[in-house]
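Re: beginner question about structure tokens

> Can someone show what the tokenized structure looks like for a real chain? I only ever see the sequence side.

Sure, here's an example I had lying around. Input first:
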Amino acid sequence: MLAYTVDMVLSKRTTADEARAIAELCRMMEKNMARCERELEAMARRR
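And the corresponding structure tokens:
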């Protein structure tokens, strides 16, 4: 996703501000995935 965003900026299909927003969204998604994985692991250990 980030590589695609960089490509879009370099080819002027999006703005730097939009690219920053996409990067922030990716960071949030990564954090949410990590939290979800920890919750699933904790549930698996309880079984």
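Each token stands for a local structural state, so reading them left to right follows the chain. The chain has one domain: 2-46.
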